[in-house]
Structures are given as structure tokens and as C-alpha cells.
Predict the structure of Solute carrier family 25 member 48 isoform X2.
Amino acid sequence: MYQVFGFFKGMSFPLASIAVYNSVVFGVFSNTQRFLSWQHCREPGASPSRTLSDLLLASMLAGVVSVGLGAPVDLIKIRLQMQTQPFQEGNLSLKSRAVALGEQPAYQGPVHCITTIVRTEGLAGLYRGASAMLLRDVPGYCLYFIPYVLLSEWITPEACAAPSPCAVWLAGGMAGAISWGTATPMDVVKSRLQADGVYLNKYKGVLDCIAQSYQKEGLKVFFRGITVNAVRGFPMSAAMFLGYELSLQAIRGDHVVTGP
């Protein structure tokens, strides 16, 4: 049974914050692109228009906001997941702090992990790997929201005012697979930077992490897990977009699914 729970190690903190994180990201995207759309209609009674540049800017802003909220969450998750295997001092070239730890876990839980990082590295320590996450999430959300909007509009018949739940589910799933698949290389770099510092410091920054990873493991290391990311991205994003759209429908009292 303990082995089964090992698959979910470090997930308590992300699960506790995922609702706030997604609601803020989706809200930033929706309100930004809606605001930009209305700026194009200056005449009274004119309908708002949505351009690709509006979607791009709204997606980029959502990506920036996601880093501000998600970097600490991802860091805590990665640090706790690093403790799934006993630490062996002989396998690594360690600093004195790591030697003192021996085989004991560095963190006893999410709260202890946060307090330890803040105490040893300051508040900036919670944003370790944020630059790599920014390089992942800004283009990642562009390839998340834009394909969703374009695919949902393409799937929806012209006679329909808004996409059906089936169209939302399918477009959201495809957008998730595209986004997570293309984000894999920078996700690898981000995860390595965030894992760095538990027992030792190996990387000086994003470029150093990329260089060391390439020298030791070759180009294929940046595509490790791409299939899993793309496969998991489909159902996860399909459910997320569908839940988001149906929630808006329920809140607004609409009878059709509305676009984000």
C-alpha cells in the first residue's frame, strides 16, 4: 500500500492550491482577451471582435501570472518528490550541509519544506527555476488557449452560437496535448533547477542546466516524458476546459456553453 501512495508523494500542496491557480489563470486570460476585444468596437452597439493578437497577448499574460502563482507550488512538489528514494551520500559530490543530512529526508512535509527554503534561501528561494518556468509557461499557454479557441470554433457548426460540451471537451483535450507536448523540453529544465539545492547545487542557471544536461545525456534528455505529458494533457485539459465552461454557464444562467 505504501508503494501505491508513493505515486502521490508531494501532491497535497498542489491539490490544495490547484483550484485557486486555475481560476486565476483562466480568469486572467478570459478577462484580458474580452477587454482587448471590446477595445476594437468604439461605436455604440457594435459587437466585440477577437483577433489572434488579442488571444496571443491574453495567453502570454496568463503565462506570466501562472509563474507568479505556480512556481512555489511546483517547487514544493518537486522537492518532496525528490525524497521518494533514500539519499545515498556516496553517489553525489556534496556540500557540508548535505553530508550532515545523511539518509534523513530534508523535508518533513509541505509546511516544513516552505519554512526551510525561506530560512535558508530567503523568499527568492521559493522561485528557484522561475525563469525556466517562464520560458515554459508563456509559450505553453499560447499553445494552450489559442488552439483551444481556434479548434472549438472550427468544430462548432456556423449555425450554432457557441460550442457544445462535446466540442469543448475535444478542443480542450487537443489543446492540452499540444501544449504539454511542446512544453516538455523546458519542463525538464525547470524540474531539474527546482530539484537542485535539496542536497547540493549543480546548476548556475537555465543555460548552465541546458548545457550540463546536453553534455551528459544528449539531446534526447529534453524530450524525456514527452509521450506521457501529451497523453495526460488530453484528459486533464479536456476536463478542465469543460468544467470551466459549464461553471460559467451555471453562474450566468446560460443555456449554451460560452467561449472563454
In short: Confidence is low (pLDDT under 50) at residues 85-102. The chain has one domain: 2-252.
